[in-house]
């Protein structure tokens, strides 16, 4: 074998080895701390809880996903071929984990790591921060008129793509706000305990980490803060109508 043939063989071997390593990385759905709690044609929603000093195992994202933190945590993110990233993440923080992203996460602090991960099943296109740094490497583009306050609540856009808009809704302390029937389907993720009523009656208490799917033209619902603080909801609105099964 001459030197050129040897070089080609080495390159082919390296390519096959990398391919084998890539295909051996499990997808998000197989990571044991991610528990699937909702699946339809728009999203997979996972509930995640990891004990202190444990770790989210190495996995690959097969779709764009947004992680919504439910706790303050000290973590180290390990991505093959990149330096470790030590981070302090906070309750309510949104983070984009893009299609193809491979990583594991060590929980360094003494508090459990809790989040809801929303996997966006349609190709998204043109991701853009609005009033939150959901993509850590990009600036925010928060218009002056972004927040929509009224007497009982505020709504602030956080992030958008060609397919999806994400907003943060705050129900003010001891106030009730009505969410009318959605123009497009919505996913609401609860960050703070809130009472939700449809029609007459006191409604039901929803806990942090629970979520609500709202189809287009679903009945209006009343969201009430019984707390001394505002309560937060993360609202995903999906711009295109399709069957959600």
Describe this structure in words.
The strands form 4 sheets. A 6-stranded antiparallel beta sheet has the order 10-11-12-19-14-17, with no helix packed on it. By secondary structure, it is mainly beta. It is globular and about 55 Å long. It folds into 2 domains: 28-120, Jelly Rolls (Sandwich); 138-238, Jelly Rolls (Sandwich), CATH 2.60.120.10. Strand 5 and strand 6 form a beta hairpin. It has one helix at residues 3-23, and strands spanning 34-39, 43-50, 55-60, 65-69, 73-78, 85-89, 94-97, 102-107, 113-120, 128-129, 153-160, 164-171, 176-179, 186-190, 194-197, 204-206, 211-214, 221-224, 231-238. It is built from 1 helix and 19 strands.
What is the topology?
Elements: H1 3-23, E1 34-39, E2 43-50, E3 55-60, E4 65-69, E5 73-78, E6 85-89, E7 94-97, E8 102-107, E9 113-120, E10 128-129, E11 153-160, E12 164-171, E13 176-179, E14 186-190, E15 194-197, E16 204-206, E17 211-214, E18 221-224, E19 231-238
From the alpha carbons, calculate the radius of gyration and give it in angstroms. Answer: 21 Å
CATH class of the largest domain: Mainly Beta
Q: What is the CATH architecture assignment of the largest domain?
A: Sandwich
* Silhouette: globular
> How do the helices and strands follow one another from N- to C-terminus?
HEEEEEEEEEEEEEEEEEEE
Key descriptive features of the protein:
single chain; 245 residues; mainly beta; Jelly Rolls; 2 domains; 6-stranded antiparallel sheet; 5-stranded antiparallel sheet; 1 helix; 9% helix; globular
């Amino acid at each position: 074998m001459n030197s050129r043939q040897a070089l080609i063989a080495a390159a082919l071997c390296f390519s096959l080895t990398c391919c084998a390593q890539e295909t051996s990385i499990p997808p998000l759905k197989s990571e044991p701390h991610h528990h699937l709690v909702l699946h339809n044609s728009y999203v997979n929603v996972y509930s995640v809880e990891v004990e202190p000093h444990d770790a989210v195992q190495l996995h690959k994202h097969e779709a764009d996903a947004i992680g919504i933190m439910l706790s303050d945590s000290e973590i180290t993110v390990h991505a093959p071929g990149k330096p470790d990233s030590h981070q302090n993440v906070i309750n309510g923080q949104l983070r984009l984990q893009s299609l193809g992203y491979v990583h594991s996460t060590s929980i360094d602090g003494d508090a459990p790591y809790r989040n809801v991960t929303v996997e966006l099943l349609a190709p998204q296109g043109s991701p853009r921060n609005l009033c939150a740094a959901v993509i850590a490497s990009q600036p925010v583009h928060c218009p002056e008129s972004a927040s929509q306050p009224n007497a009982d609540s505020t709504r602030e856009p956080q992030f958008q793509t060609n397919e999806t808009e994400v907003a943060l809704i705050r129900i003010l302390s001891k106030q009730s706000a009505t969410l009318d029937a959605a123009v497009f389907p919505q996913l609401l993720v609860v960050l703070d305990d809130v009472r939700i009523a449809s029609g007459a009656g006191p409604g039901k208490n929803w806990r942090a980490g629970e979520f609500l799917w709202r189809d287009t033209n679903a009945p209006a619902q009343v969201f009430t803060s019984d707390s001394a603080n505002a309560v937060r909801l993360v609202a995903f609105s999906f711009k295109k109508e399709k069957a959600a099964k």
